[in-house]
Amino acid sequence: MGQPQQPDRTAAKKPLLRIGMVGYAFMGAAHSQGWRTVSRVFDLPRQPVLAVICGRDETAVRAAADRHGWATAETDWRALIARDDVDLVDICTPGDSHAEIALAALAAGKHVLCEKPLANTVEEAEMMASAAESAYKRGQLTMVGFNYRRAPASALARQMVAEGRIGTLRHVRASYLQDWLVDPQAPLSWRLRKELAGSGSLGDLGAHIVDLAQYLAGEPLAGVSALTETFIRERPLVDASRGLGANSADGTGQVTVDDATLFIARFTSGALASFEATRYATGRKNALRIELNGEHGSLAFDLERLNELWYHDGTEPSTHAGFRRILVTEPDHPYLDAWWPPGHGLGYEHTFVHQARDLVHAIAGGRTPEPSFADGLQVQRVLAAVEESAERNCAYTTIAG
Amino acid sequence: MGQPQQPDRTAAKKPLLRIGMVGYAFMGAAHSQGWRTVSRVFDLPRQPVLAVICGRDETAVRAAADRHGWATAETDWRALIARDDVDLVDICTPGDSHAEIALAALAAGKHVLCEKPLANTVEEAEMMASAAESAYKRGQLTMVGFNYRRAPASALARQMVAEGRIGTLRHVRASYLQDWLVDPQAPLSWRLRKELAGSGSLGDLGAHIVDLAQYLAGEPLAGVSALTETFIRERPLVDASRGLGANSADGTGQVTVDDATLFIARFTSGALASFEATRYATGRKNALRIELNGEHGSLAFDLERLNELWYHDGTEPSTHAGFRRILVTEPDHPYLDAWWPPGHGLGYEHTFVHQARDLVHAIAGGRTPEPSFADGLQVQRVLAAVEESAERNCAYTTIAG
Amino acid sequence: MGQPQQPDRTAAKKPLLRIGMVGYAFMGAAHSQGWRTVSRVFDLPRQPVLAVICGRDETAVRAAADRHGWATAETDWRALIARDDVDLVDICTPGDSHAEIALAALAAGKHVLCEKPLANTVEEAEMMASAAESAYKRGQLTMVGFNYRRAPASALARQMVAEGRIGTLRHVRASYLQDWLVDPQAPLSWRLRKELAGSGSLGDLGAHIVDLAQYLAGEPLAGVSALTETFIRERPLVDASRGLGANSADGTGQVTVDDATLFIARFTSGALASFEATRYATGRKNALRIELNGEHGSLAFDLERLNELWYHDGTEPSTHAGFRRILVTEPDHPYLDAWWPPGHGLGYEHTFVHQARDLVHAIAGGRTPEPSFADGLQVQRVLAAVEESAERNCAYTTIAG
Amino acid sequence: MGQPQQPDRTAAKKPLLRIGMVGYAFMGAAHSQGWRTVSRVFDLPRQPVLAVICGRDETAVRAAADRHGWATAETDWRALIARDDVDLVDICTPGDSHAEIALAALAAGKHVLCEKPLANTVEEAEMMASAAESAYKRGQLTMVGFNYRRAPASALARQMVAEGRIGTLRHVRASYLQDWLVDPQAPLSWRLRKELAGSGSLGDLGAHIVDLAQYLAGEPLAGVSALTETFIRERPLVDASRGLGANSADGTGQVTVDDATLFIARFTSGALASFEATRYATGRKNALRIELNGEHGSLAFDLERLNELWYHDGTEPSTHAGFRRILVTEPDHPYLDAWWPPGHGLGYEHTFVHQARDLVHAIAGGRTPEPSFADGLQVQRVLAAVEESAERNCAYTTIAG
Questions:
Q1: Which CATH class is domain A14-147?
Q2: For the Gfo/Idh/MocA-like oxidoreductase N-terminal domain, which residue ranges apply (chains A, B, C, D) (predicted)?
Q3: How far is C233 from chain D (nearest CA, A)?
Q4: How many Cα neighbours within 13 Å face the side chain of D21?
Q5: pLDDT per residue over C130-152, tens digit each?
Q6: Looking at domain B149-363+371-398, which of 3.30.360.10, 3.30.450.20, 2.70.70.10, 3.30.300.20 is its CATH number?
Q7: Distances from the Cα of A74 to the Cαs of A55, A82, B184, in angstroms?
Q8: Tell me, what's the pLDDT at B9?
């Protein structure tokens, strides 16, 4: 003893899974935390290695590499993809570059994890799903980063729905409420420009609740009727937003995406659903809420209290029935046997650790992880139907299948 | 002392307000409780007298009179209206008879309180509102029984909106969830037949949240896009429902109203709104919930916790801001100076006491109470637009004004 | 039809139960509401009649009679007791007069309902319990007004404990938090003087949680260790408090009761308990909270949300276990079959309606109602042990039995 | 680019802080997570290095080193302390070894972080605090691991108390409820034997709430009155517990620590407090709850919802006042500027990241971190007074100062 040991010595005997991540902003930080932590907590069949991170600004990307623990850095994502020492490309860039990077990575024989939404258009998403299908035959796996499926409480909800605990589904109501645009003086940013962000509340927040609703329900949406609104159409330009739809003289720029999106929908089974995504719900910070009502029970989840799942067992005698707060921290809850004792809750970032865990297992096992690019395409089709309905004065619009 | 006193002796010096109530089921019991209690709690300019109750079954109506404290009983509402000793007709029957009774009562010179929804059709409601307007010129007052405006918490919410505390309105989300039809074996009743009930979840539950949303927002809805569904289309007939859409042989009858109604909407100001009314939300018993988000703050109310109003003051520094639970039981809260000390909550039935209080004051003061028949008509127009949109495949349907 | 009917005609065929109530302040109003309403809601074996109300100020008591619906008024409680047309004496005065009035009423052959706490001293309570025992042999019944036993949620909790649902009891934690004295400028009142109120937080709030804890546990406390404190020892005198412990010159008077009382305790079974009663818990208005933990489950109740009972079933698999919110508004819940549909909650005052109901049934059935004067005496002994422990530097003090 | 980079390259320019950790069970895993993550999230003046981990079982400790990312392993803590390449000794062993290890580490010139409780006796704690004081003069820093001070919500609460937002303190009520011993068949473990664990619920759970109460109040407790109980006195022996107080024949062993501890207390300012620590609160998994009531406001925290702080501002008009839920995830909240956007909550383990952050800053700045060994000693004195009071039949026992 007393001699320096290599970290992850036993892990070193496992096959490596060398990761190249493109993008290093909010999502890059979150994915890094997931990759760094996953093998410290879970027993994995392959050992993830934070091999290379990529960003356009060399100084910034080197700082990010140091900060987040990546061994090397690149400034061109094509160079990253070209490297032999990368097994998996993890795409954390804005949506307008997802398709190009993912298609190139798949062509280069890499596994791909792509942040949500899969793409900015259905066409791009179709190409990606198609490429993923072909790549699968060559042994490459793909996944889209709808991380909220991997909060233990939502995973437990899915498990309970699949077990039949709520019976025939009648209603899903989902909302994702934030408030960071409620101030009219909040500046214009790339997130408010359609050419970069694809959409506003819809792709950013709506995509999450569409995916989560379909995942929990275990079935796709069939059609939607939608309203969208942009409450504040001009916002101040700041240095970071110069050039973004600038007006001639007054220092403001045009907002070209939706501030809020509401839609009602039918599932293929006939269950009804409602969705709301907004950045104008004053006081609601990250309030992703979803409730399912079935013939035999109900389930409710709120991301602001992510360690809790509320469950009503409708088969109990009414005398003692009620919505119960399951504190999803027991060893027999999803992912929890690897973490802390009961009652010691997890946080937002753990969803990325769980995503990493499940992806490593899927790659090692050669089976398609969920959500696949096909799942991501399906969400994209819902978003497209929402946009189409909103443009057609709320006309009910069926989801292309 | 020691001699028997007449009850309400001092009150006897006040002008009486003699009430004739038509109907004695659930709503009749609730209104009776309101009329009996109001002068025990509030100082009123006129003294309500429970003069006469009316129902078709003589034995039953006499029993109801005894039970609920009405001095006399009638079996024909026309006889009730013809009586000289009735000042106010309180209509607690199902919606299909509202128009006929109200029009006759107004023609007979009575004040009228009519349960919600005002009528089963816009046409009826228009006649009623028109008659009410004429009657007002003759000194007769009319009110529609949207009692949930008179929970202290919702009245406080209205007051806070009117004071500008939430600023420019962005979102309203309202739902009214019950679960009494979730069992497919729950029997057919008149509430499930269109010819009697007018509609299902829409008129029963949806009417409440439409009224409350417009009341709290202080502005009308401009247009809607709607979905409705009837999940269970045939239900067992029981003795009480024989004759209701009976199928030939199998002991079941047709459900001809909506089980659930979802719609999204725009207010005239441009704010967005969503509504859901259902009888299939397992575990939700009487969950009327409404939240308003404005530029400066938010308010949220849940009827299952009716003594509470949640308020977010968006002008506070973010360090200390949060949704606060106002326990609406302080002497300076609406209606509360007459009740119990802080923290000693009220219940559902108190909304009827408050409704009675406000109506008596309005009649004594000769000013139109809120909600007026015109308000009831406006709600009816929203309901009609919802039905039209649902029939037109969710097409956005403007509210006739 | 069309002829005036006597109210309560069918009820008139029942034997009457003629009530004489002494006191007409807060508790008088609450009891009046209970007596007025009970026969409108419940089917009763005897018909309560609000026969006579008593108070020292003739003008005020006559106004109270009118307001609250009492047929006659008296200014001397001895005259009330002497009346032949009174079957039940309902004592709503401050605690220093309970014993004298109750003993006289029992001597005069009346049934007696006495507000809590039963008396200001153990000695008085012993005399009252002894007299009640003798009177019971003569067919007279007695009850003490611990109304919180009769919130449907607490009654359900008792029922569930009695059914063995939580198993061997381990812990009870009870607190009753108010905040009306937190302002040092709140004036002196009779409630802050020992000679009138007996004690402060202890008798006013502590008595409620001691009774409720023993009732729910189904067993008595065995011993206590207690701390009390008077945070503000001098308060401004106002007109209403002139003469109350006035200081010589500065316009203030002495507070001679406890502001807050904390104690820990053992039940006879060995379960542990903690209690806190205070008027200094800023923001807590009427927060009576009690939780029981047993080997097989737990129950929790909060008076500020009095329609809810929280239940944890410890025998469920941990995967799906959690505290559930039972909305205590179902027809099979205590008292609820007579009220409104599920989810339509009750309020504070309904506890007095239920108290009246249960007392009428007990009198008609000739069986001792709960809580009896003996129960009230037992609570008094706990309060005395608390005071003794506090005086003896927290020494563990057994409850005299 | 494209060349392998050393991780933490910029960090490498900082002075290192080489950590040697003793113990690798639950707390070892939590501390490891803290040390591994802290420099990825926060900008630190020194770079923590996971240099060496120590445990008695060589195979196990090597596995732990690999799992948790420690460079080397030792099987004798004395060897760890003797190493030149260790700057800080992090003690994560059971309490019976804290004193010996800490004293040796201080003698060897190391900084020391010691898990709570500081020791199993006041005598040990005094020696440790004394040694820490001497070591401080030599530039060595010490800290005790009361990690719950470093949940952002509790840190915010402390900040708000220090700002005077709740004014003169009146009440603190604290409880720490778990339920893992409620099953009588749960086996005996070292945690249930006094010679190893020192105490049961008191040292394990009570120590946390005593520290947190004093920290938040900003003042020490002055005296206590306490009850303790061991509900189940014999428990089954399992392999892991052979030799632990074995009974002769029946396969059970003696429980020699407290199952539950209740105490009431006075702060030096005269404020009152209550405490409860138990492992028998069925359904409560990790329910550390604390509420402070002051003259101007109140604060409440629940570890099961650790991203929330409840605040009542008593200076607001009563019309709009209420307990507000501050979601403690804003950039201006303690520690939060380094983490995720608003509403993206943290978990239990983040308290260890924050503890690591604060300790690194303190060491780099040469100032004593909080809580110091002196703070840990003070907690130990409270625990001793609790034990003494419980032995003396709850007699009020002053805290030695």
A1: alpha beta
A2: 17-138
A3: 13
A4: 31
A5: 999 999 999 999 999 999 999 99
A6: 3.30.360.10
A7: 6, 11, 61
A8: 46
Subunits in contact with chain B (3 or more CB pairs closer than 8 Å): A, C, D
Where does chain B hold its CATH 3.30.360.10 domain(s)?
Answer: 149-363+371-398
- Distance (Å, rounded) from C-alpha B310 to C-alpha D323? 10
Q: Do A345 and D304 touch (CB under 8 A)?
A: yes
Mutate to test the interface with B, among A179, A229, A272 (most CBs of B within 10 A): A272
Architecture of domain C14-148: 3-Layer(aba) Sandwich (3.40)
Q: Which of B247, B250, B175, B235 has its CA nearest to residue B209?
A: B175
Q: Scanning the structure block, which residue is given the tokens 């308010």?
A: B299
Q: Where in chain C is the domain with CATH 3.40.50.720?
A: 14-148
Per-residue pLDDT at B196: 86
pLDDT for res B8:
47
Q: By CA distance, what is D325's nearest residue in B?
A: B322
Q: What is the pLDDT of residues D228-261, one digit of tens each?
A: 999 999 999 886 666 666 665 678 899 999 999 9
What CATH architecture is A149-350+370-398? Answer: 2-Layer Sandwich (3.30)
- Cβ-proximal residues to C170 (8 Å cutoff; 6+ apart), any chain: C271, C272, C293, C294, C295, D182, D231, D260, D278, D280, D281, D282
Pairing of strands A308-313, A323-327: antiparallel
Question: Where along chain A do the CATH 3.40.50.720 domains lie?
Answer: 14-147
For chain D, what is the largest distance between any 2 Cα atoms, rounded to a whole number of angstroms?
73
CATH architecture of D149-347+371-398: 2-Layer Sandwich (3.30)
Bridging pattern class, strands C287-294 and C297-302 = antiparallel
How far apart are the C-alpha atoms of D278 and D258, rounded to whole Å?
A: 9
- Residue ranges, CATH 3.30.360.10, chain C: 149-398
CA distance A210 to chain B (A): 17
Which one is predicted more confidently, B191 or C105? C105
Q: Which CATH superfamily does the domain covering C149-398 fall into?
A: Dihydrodipicolinate Reductase; domain 2 (3.30.360.10)
Determine the distance in angstroms separating the CA of C338 from the nearest CA of chain A, rounded to an integer.
Answer: 16
Contact D350 A347 (CB under 8 A): yes
The answer to whether B227 contacts A266, with C-beta atoms less than 8 Å apart, is yes
Residue B297, token pair as written in the block:
């703050």
- For residue range A91-150, what is the model confidence (pLDDT) as tens digits? 999 999 999 999 999 999 999 999 999 999 999 999 999 999 999 999 999 999 999 999
The residue of chain D with its CA nearest to that of A41 is D67
Task: Tell me if A347 and D345 make a contact (CB, 8 A cut-off).
Answer: yes
B/e letters for C34-68, b = 16+ CB within 10 Å, e = fewer, are bbbbbbbbbebebbbbbbbbbbeeeeebbbbbbbb
Mutation for testing the C interface, residue in B344, B346, B353, B354 having most C CBs under 10 Å: B344
C15 DSSP assignment: P
Positions in chain B whose pLDDT score sits under 50: 1-11
- Mean pLDDT for C180-194 is 92
D19-39 mean pLDDT: 96
Within 8 A of A35 by CB-CB distance, chain D residues are: none
The segment(s) of chain A belonging to CATH 3.30.360.10 are 149-350+370-398
DSSP string, C174-226: EEEE--TT-STTSPP-GGG-HHHHS-SHIIIIIHHHHHHHHHHHTS-EEEEEE
Structure tokens at B219: 């502005």
What average pLDDT does the segment D47-56 reach?
97
DSSP D109: T
Q: Please give the model's pTM, rounded to 2 decimal places.
A: 0.96
CB burial string B331-362: b at 16+ within 10 A, e below: eebbbbeebbebbbbbbbbbbbbbbbbbbbbb
The answer to whether the CB atoms of B72 and C3 lie below 8 A apart is: yes
